[in-house]
Amino acid sequence: MTQGTYLIKDLEKLTGIKAHTIRIWEKRYKVVSPKRTTTNIRYYCDNDLKRLLNISVLLKQGFRISQLSELSDDDLGEKIMSLHYHPQAEEIRIDNLVTSMIDLDEPMFEKTIHLSTLNLGFEHTVLKIIYPFLERIGVLWLSGSINPAQEHFVTNLLRQKLLVAIDNLMIKPSPDSKRFILFLPENELHELGLLFYSYLVRKSGHKIIYLGQSVPYSDLLEVARFKEPDVLVTSLVAAMSLPDAEAYVQQMSSDFASKTIYLTGIQAFQLTLPLPSNVIRISDPVQFKDLISNH
User: What is the pTM of this model?
Assistant: First the structure.
């Protein structure tokens, strides 16, 4: 696989280190050595990103940049691995997920998730490790700064984890439980968030019909007519233009006027129209969990 290429603004988003700080470190400590395009634009490779990720974590543990700049990439990696059981390991694990994504390193990815699940439990691992990781790289996925193979690698591994966790839930719906339909609109394929929401719904003791990715609207109407849900949950990320997304929400609100509709995803927060009264925008899984506990 070809090396990734990153602009300095990409490094800033992924590492949390300000662009001007990276430039100072380049000159003063030779921390990384960017290349330049034919039009003289500075760009960085996967190794530069991994080095800065490790440095970012170690700086938070009290090391000085003057010390770290003298260490090899292998030495930096060893120091990071020694911090796996550190009480403040969340940021380290997020950075390890980024690194394992860059290298397509499944053993490292699995180890990071496993250690976090042992320490935090599955639900908190998703909330404290996986969601921050996805938020950090999500903008770069959408902008094409990250190789599609890396996106598929991460998505498939996380999807497996979520499916296993859902399958392992042994909670029977309570007598007063509600029926939820979870789906993504046609051509919408970003399913990880919806899968975790299905986990939370099932864990809360509600009944669930999971339709998954790219559901034609006519099929949604047919399933809803047959199964009569109380709640619909969907996500808008990138499948529609903004005007089409607003029209879609209005249509849903009208066709399911007596139902509660939970709406999440990046595009949900770009809508400019006032939301209909039966549509509730969800900012994160914690808010969603609180809301469904009141059904």
Answer: 0.81
What single-letter DSSP state applies at residue 238?
S
- C-alpha span between 1 and 146 (Å, rounded): 12
| In the chain, alpha helices (H) | 8-15, 19-29, 46-60, 65-68, 73-81, 90-103, 106-120, 122-125, 131-143, 148-168, 192-203, 217-227, 242-255, 285-292
DSSP state of 104: T
Which residues fall within 8 angstroms of residue 243, CB to CB, at 6 or more apart?
A: none
Q: CA-to-CA distance for 188 and 168, rounded, in angstroms?
A: 27
Distance CA 25, CA 144 (A): 27
Contact 232, 223 (CB under 8 A): no
Establish how many alpha carbons lie within 13 A of residue 226's alpha carbon, considering only the half-sphere containing its beta carbon. 8
Cβ atoms of 186 and 239 closer than 8 Å: yes
In terms of DSSP bridges, do strands 42-43 and 179-185 run parallel, antiparallel, or are they unpaired? Answer: unpaired
> How far is 10 from 84, CA to CA, in rounded Å?
26
pLDDT digits (tens, 9 = 90+) for 154-201: 999 999 999 999 999 887 777 788 999 999 999 998 899 999 999 999
Domain(s) labelled CATH 3.40.50.280 in the chain stretch across 172-292
To the question of domain 172-292 being in CATH 3.40.50.280, the answer is yes
